[in-house]
Structure formats: C-alpha cells, structure tokens
Specification:
31% of the residues lie in helices and 25% in strands. By secondary structure, the chain is of the alpha+beta class.
Length: 176
Amino acid sequence: MAKLEILVAPDPRLKKRALPVERVDDDIRKLMDDMVETMYDARGIGLAAPQVGISKRVIVVDVARDDEEPQPIQMANPEVIWESDEERTYEEGCLSLPEHYAEVVRPEAVKIRYLDRENEIRTLEADDILATCIQHEIDHLDGVLFVDHISSLKRNMIIKKLQKVKKQRQAEEATA
C-alpha cells in the first residue's frame, strides 16, 4: 500500500465533481486500500478520492474509536437514498482544511447505496457520527467542502488562513 498526498484547500481540484466508477476492479480496490492507509496515517475518520487528487466517486470512512478494532468502510459511487427529518450538529474538521473546525448541521440519519469492494450493490443505514462522516465525504465527491455549509464570513476567514499558510510554505520551499 502507498500513502497518498492529501490536497489542501484552496485547491481547485477539491471543487470539481468526481466521476462515477464504472466497476470496482483491482485498481479501485488498490485506491481504496491506499486511501484507508492515508486516512489512518493522517488520523482522520474519512477520506474521499478527490482529496488525494483522483476524480473518482470513492470514499473510505472509519469512525471506530482508538480503543476499538478498525472498522473501515469502503464505498464506490455512494449516494444518499434516504435522510431523516431530524438534524444533528457536529463540529466538523477536514484533512483538506487542517486545523480548522466549524459546526455543521446535517440529517441525523441516512441510508446509503454504494458499490462495495466486490462490485456488489449494498445499502447501509447510518446515524450519528457515521452518518455525518459519510455525508461529509459524499460532499467531497460533489466538490463541496464543509465550509460551504457555514457563513461566508467564517468560510472566507478559514480559506484566507489556508492561503496564507500555503504561500508561506511555497516561500520556504523556494528558499530551501
């Protein structure tokens, strides 16, 4: 397995709609495995293929706590086919917006249809943090970041801070 590089906002690739997966084959399974390794290495609970520069509708999530066995879920072409009327607010973060968090309101429960590792159509009912995580990752497939769900003032502050950090890193690399 290989660790992949996670894109950091503002990167235009994060704002593009990802392409559907024709079928889950060995290449997609390898991508899923590499994404799981990358997610664990970054101490995240979810990762979408666009976050590693790959325009495919693939996500991985694992909301198991540190003291639990890992429980990775790998999905191709995930789609929400039902969502609850009840909503829940979670403070969300994102590997593509490091060290930035904001409260986001989403449906508390969802039902997802997707292709699994064996190219089989599956459904999954999720609630609480798993539902939030899956919705967050599906947003990435549509070019939506969690900051797109908050006020423009807060979003612009976060993006400006990330731009500043990116410019500083580029300047440091240029002088190194």
